Every structure is written in structure tokens, then in C-alpha cells.
């Protein structure tokens, strides 16, 4: 679809990792798939949903990627813990449940 070669994707991932202060040697083109499986599992998605998202035909690799996972250990959880909370935007709600006369 985007006509990107494996080497182009690998180069871009490693450049992004370096810019983020992550050792590029620790990143591969497979890293996003592993992270996706872990983050979906930590978010409560079931095995079938993770299999569809990652196009896995068996649950074996998902089980391997998520076997030692706790929600607080995922990259996204750590990222969210360091973010400043955004102000809540609550929708006004009508608590009056009495029917109004026409």
C-alpha cells in the first residue's frame, strides 16, 4: 500500500528510537507487533481480538509475548503515567427525569 521496503521501515524505526533516547539496537521491525500484542492484552482485549489485530493464525506467539505481562509494565502504561492529566470535559447532563407538560 505504501510501497515501503523492510529496510526503509527499519531505518525509520531506529531513527525514531534514537530521537526518543532509546538505543536503536533494541528496536526491530518486529517491535511494534510485540508492543501491540502486549498493550492490547493489558487493555483487556481477548486473545481472538489480538489475533485479528496482529494477523496471527494461532495464539502461541501472543501467549509468548504476553506471558509475563502486567498492565503497569507496558510501554504505553509507563508513557501514560508520566503525562499530565488533561482537564476533564464533561458533557452537561439533565438530571431532571420528570416529564415536562406540553
Structural notes for this entry:
This protein is mainly α and 102 residues long. The chain has a domain at 29-72. Helix content is 48%, strand content 0%. It is built from five helices and no strands. The protein has helices spanning 6-19, 31-42, 47-54, 60-66, 75-82. The chain starts with 5 loop residues before the first helix and ends in a 20-residue tail after the last helix. The mean pLDDT is 78.
Summary, kept brief:
The chain is an all-alpha fold and 102 residues long. It has 5 helices and no strands. The chain starts with 5 loop residues before the first helix and ends in a 20-residue tail after the last helix.
What is the element layout, followed by pairings?
Blueprint: H1 6-19, H2 31-42, H3 47-54, H4 60-66, H5 75-82
Amino acid at each position: 500500500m505504501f510501497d515501503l521496503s523492510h529496510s526503509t521501515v527499519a531505518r525509520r524505526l531506529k531513527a525514531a528510537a534514537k530521537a526518543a533516547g532509546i538505543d536503536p539496537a533494541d528496536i526491530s521491525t518486529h517491535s511494534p507487533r510485540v508492543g501491540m500484542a502486549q498493550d492490547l492484552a493489558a487493555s483487556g482485549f481477548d486473545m481472538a481480538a489480538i489475533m485479528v489485530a496482529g494477523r496471527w493464525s494461532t495464539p502461541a506467539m501472543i501467549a509468548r509475548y504476553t506471558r509475563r505481562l502486567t498492565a503497569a509494565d507496558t510501554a504505553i502504561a509507563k508513557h501514560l503515567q508520566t503525562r499530565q492529566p488533561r482537564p476533564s470535559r464533561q458533557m452537561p447532563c439533565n438530571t431532571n427525569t420528570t416529564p415536562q407538560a406540553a
